[in-house]
Amino acid sequence: MIRVVLDTNVLVAAVISPTGPNAQIFQAIVADKIRPYVTNAVVEEYGRVFEYERLQYLDKRRIANVRRLLKAAAIKVKSRGRLKVSEHEEDNRIYECAVAAKAHYIVTENTKHFTTPYKVTKIVNARQLLRLLAGDEPPIA
Amino acid sequence: MVIPRSLREEAGVSEGTLIKVAVVEGGQLLLTPQFTIDRPKLSGRKPRKTILRELAAAVDELRQDAKAKGIDKMPMSEINRAVTAARRDLKKGSSSKRVRA
């Protein structure tokens, strides 16, 4: 099973629109082809993001329901401590989750912030992961 | 273990029942019928397939809401601004923790 940590932008894009590569990543999760991992910090961020920009106008009950079920579907891991891999301090919570999960991939649409693979974890966007899942692209070194 | 039908019927045990076997005083065998319970039922957790199906339905509902409010075409730049704002606010409450390189 491929272990992934979804950056929050991937999650948001997937749950607001049924089209596009991020929605297809979500489909792969629902089909149990890839398994998402979370820490408390990541789950907290998944909830908090819906308080900003136009996302705050989405139905709160529906957001809470998605968050609850995603938490149940994901494998929860405990962060082993603070890391300083990314120069954007707040992005390190995603790296910390990936390290605790020994994740194969961090999936993000913000590759400017996540430039560095760390230990066993590669950085990919949704399109790249879909190609990897389809076997069209060799694993990223 | 095969138990004669007459004995099974007398004890009220159906075929295929899990039986616990113990040796008791005098080398006799004591057979005690057991109940089996699915682990997810015991723990109160739903099977993974059920959770994933419910997650798909919940996301579908949220997408409908997003579409109705015109948020479904939100550009990634705006999503990233929301993520940055969320991270900035979460950072305020966690800046005193230990850091390792």
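Helices of chain B lie at 5-11, 39-43, 48-68, 76-92.
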